[in-house]
Amino acid sequence: MFPGFVNPGDIREYKHLVSLMKLKSIMFPDCSNCHGRPMTGEYKMYPEGGTTIDEIRALGSCRKVLALGRLTSEEPAAQLKRRCGVDFTLLPLPMGLADTDAFIMAMANLNGGEIDPLIDEERGRLLDLMLDANPYFYDKKVAIYGDPDTVLGMTRFCLELGMVPKYVLTGTPGETFVKLAKALFKEYGKEDMCQAFAAKDLFDLHQFIKDEPVDLLLGNSHGKQIAKAESIPLVRAGFPVLDRYGHASLPIVGYRGAFQLATKIADALMDEFDRNCADEDMDLIM
Question: For residue 29, which of 56, 48, 9, 47 has the smallest C-alpha distance?
Fold first, then answer.
């Protein structure tokens, strides 16, 4: 499995789902036990974990590669197929509902169609949250920025939540990102309300927001200056999150990762509502 965007919490979530699907896997790369290890009181210069040399060699004899991240993982998967004949399935990062469904079904095609009931429970909890908090998500404009595959995953999830990804931006050049983002806008009937940009930076994003404001920023720590300057709530997600603790261990992939991300988005929007509403409009109980 080529996981694309590498975050220890995400790798652990992939392993959790693979284990529930009763499949053997090689994660390449695997930083889940190298970064964010528990404190044991014992110092180690080189932490245990990671993808071993033997596992890297064994990639050539895998039954199938699941390449996660359409823009990040296609070329290494194609190289492995050319060199070793290993077939691959190219998938988006499993963020949100539909893209995680696609990841689960790709694994179900490898294990005979068996899906652990716990996966259905995790999916159901995510759906319940999406429905309950819909009045706060619906029609809220969000600016999303960061690495291209992560941005595309968060864009689809925001569309699933009923939000409007007004600006979708990556600093990575390439029209493929723009085409994929526009296809998402069209799929959800938002093509006239959203814009996608490649090879742009946060200065560009700030100018877009000054022209037409948004309700929320979704991306890494580098957006905090825009959030402060424009008094817009920021939900930190993606890489890097440098100015808050624990984020590297919090997944944003899989149903559980989507649940956490949706919770953070809802909290930010509800906090903003409470800050600005009249005293009599503050809700104590949802």
Answer: 56
Q: Taking each helix axis from N to C terminus, what angle separates 8-20 and 254-276, rounded to the nearest 10 degrees?
A: 130
Spatial distance between the Cα atoms of 282 and 219, rounded to a whole number of angstroms: 28
Report whether pLDDT(127) > 80: yes
65 in helix, strand or coil?
strand
CATH number of 120-281: 3.40.50.1980
Please tell me the distance from the alpha carbon of residue 6 to that of residue 27, in angstroms, as a whole number.
Answer: 11
The pTM assigned to this predicted structure is 0.91
Name the segment(s) of the chain with CATH classification 3.40.50.1980.
8-115, 120-281
Residue 257, pLDDT score: 96
For 8-115, which CATH class? alpha beta
Flag whether pLDDT at 132 surpasses 70. yes
Which pair of tokens denotes residue 24? Answer: 């053997």
Q: Which runs of consecutive H residues, i.e. helices, occur in the chain? A: 8-20, 53-58, 74-84, 96-111, 117-132, 134-137, 148-160, 175-187, 202-211, 224-230, 254-276
Taking a C-beta distance cutoff of 8 angstroms, is the pair 198, 170 a contact? Answer: yes
pLDDT in tens, 85-101: 999 999 999 999 999 99
Which element (helix H / strand E) includes 218?
A: strand 216-219
**pLDDT at residue 31 greater than cutoff 80:** no
Six-digit token pair at 175?
A: 């029209």
> In the 8-state DSSP scheme, what is residue 2?
B
